[in-house]
Amino acid sequence: MTEYGAYERLRDDPSSDRYGAIKKWRAADADSERLMLTYQQLKNDEELSDVGRSERAWQAYDNKAQDIEAKRVAAREELQRSARSSQKLSVPLPENAKHEPTDANEAMLDHQIADQLRRILERMSNKGGPLAPKPANFLREKYGDALQATGVNAASQARAVLILAQEHGVPISSVVDTYRQDRHREHQARAEREATWANMIPSAPPKPPFAMPEDRAPGTLAEIIQRSKARRASSNRPSTALTGRSGSPLTGGGKRNKRRLWK
Q1: What pLDDT shows up at residue 171?
Q2: Is residue 171 in a domain?
């Protein structure tokens, strides 16, 4: 067992129990710990030679590495999707508005309003000087205007402001945070927590603390898995040796009467 620290406390936080991704992460870590326990047992086995320990350890790695990595990748991607969804829900919108345009007409209106606001921002930036309006302040004000209104135009203006925020490198939170309610802040906290979990999940399974066997070709995990599949496919392939009527292979040991090509 590994020492229980900050990593394990976050992974095993009871608030994460509802996430299927966390269960995959825990399962992968449990497999990883069992793999490391195997390495330790082999290291303590005095009846095995160094070569024997190495061969058994790397065989155990080959048997488990693919499954461990697959579980961790699936968990990470699932948490990243959940974080993006929570982040969207943390952004307040006008009444009945959607985070994405629902049809081509709404998408066109989004771009039209974005163009109008973009021209205003360009005129503001041309003024220059220390007293020139800040893009973040302008976008925050326009977002507030959209939240106070209703209808298609209000929804498009809100989305247009977010488009411009990305263009100008303005954090979305600095635009919308003033208008967030408790439910939005809960989603924001959840998004941050999910992103933290996703970033904490390791990728590579633990490798054996033994020298790689001489007959084992080195390479990436993907290459190792590919070679393993190729070996299995080769072992399952039926023999292509020629056989006679009795079923015995034709070894070609006897004399053959070969007809010369020019005769």
Answers
A1: 95
A2: yes
